[in-house]
């Protein structure tokens, strides 16, 4: 499945136990992550500044970067999300022809779908995977 993993999912998967950790460690390689420079920069900045992590000590980041299909999103014609930064997540999904966005962000989750892209919580994403198994 082509998936945009929002920054909050990847960060939580790296720094905390729980559903996001399961997604990042167990399911990331089973999918085609869609990534843009905007999302990558946001991710690496948060890991460095908020959590003071050395990115070279995080092999999962290298795997994520290598597995990803990189796209160049174009700015949406008009704002969609309540948080305009989240429009870059949506634009990345559209540019990468993603089937889903996995996020913990309420500003995205409230949309439920954007164009043909489902917007799922981490829990819903895992439930869908378990149903397919």
The first-level CATH class name: Alpha Beta
Number of strands: 6
Q: Architecture, CATH level 2?
A: 3-Layer(aba) Sandwich
* Poorly predicted regions: none
Number of helices in the DSSP assignment: 7
**What is the name of the CATH topology?**
Rossmann fold
For the terminal residues, how far apart are their CA atoms?
14 Å
Succession of helices and strands: EHHEHHEHEHEEH
Characterization of this structure:
The protein has 133 residues and is α/β, with parallel strands linked by helices. It has one domain (2-106): 3-Layer(aba) Sandwich (Rossmann fold), CATH 3.40.50.1010. The protein contains 7 helices and 6 strands, in the order E-H-H-E-H-H-E-H-E-H-E-E-H. The protein has helices spanning 7-15, 19-27, 37-49, 59-67, 86-95, 106-109, 122-132; strands at 2-5, 32-36, 69-71, 100-102, 113-114, 117-120. Strands 3-2-1-4-6-5 form a 6-stranded mixed sheet, sandwiched between helices. The mean pLDDT is 94.
What is the strand and helix layout of this fold?
Layout: E1 2-5, H1 7-15, H2 19-27, E2 32-36, H3 37-49, H4 59-67, E3 69-71, H5 86-95, E4 100-102, H6 106-109, E5 113-114, E6 117-120, H7 122-132
Parallel strand pairs: 1-2, 1-4, 2-3, 4-6
Antiparallel strand pairs: 5-6
Helix pairs in contact: 1-2, 1-3
Entry keywords:
133 residues; alpha/beta; Rossmann fold; six-stranded mixed sheet; 7 helices; 6 strands; globular
Structure summary:
It contains seven helices and six strands; from the N terminus they run βααβααβαβαββα.
């Amino acid at each position: 499945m082509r998936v945009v993993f929002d920054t909050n999912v990847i960060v939580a998967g790296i720094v905390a136990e729980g559903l996001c950790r399961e997604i990042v460690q167990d399911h990331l390689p089973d999918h085609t992550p869609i990534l843009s420079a905007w999302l990558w920069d946001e991710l690496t900045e948060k890991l460095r500044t908020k959590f003071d992590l050395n990115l070279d000590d995080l092999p999962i980041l290298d795997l994520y970067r290598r597995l990803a299909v990189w796209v160049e999103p174009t700015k949406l014609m008009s704002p969609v999300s309540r948080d305009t930064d989240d429009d870059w997540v949506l634009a990345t999904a559209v540019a990468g022809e993603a089937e889903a966005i996995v996020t913990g962000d309420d500003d995205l989750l409230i949309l439920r779908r954007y164009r043909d892209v489902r917007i799922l919580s981490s829990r819903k994403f895992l439930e869908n995977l378990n149903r397919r198994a």
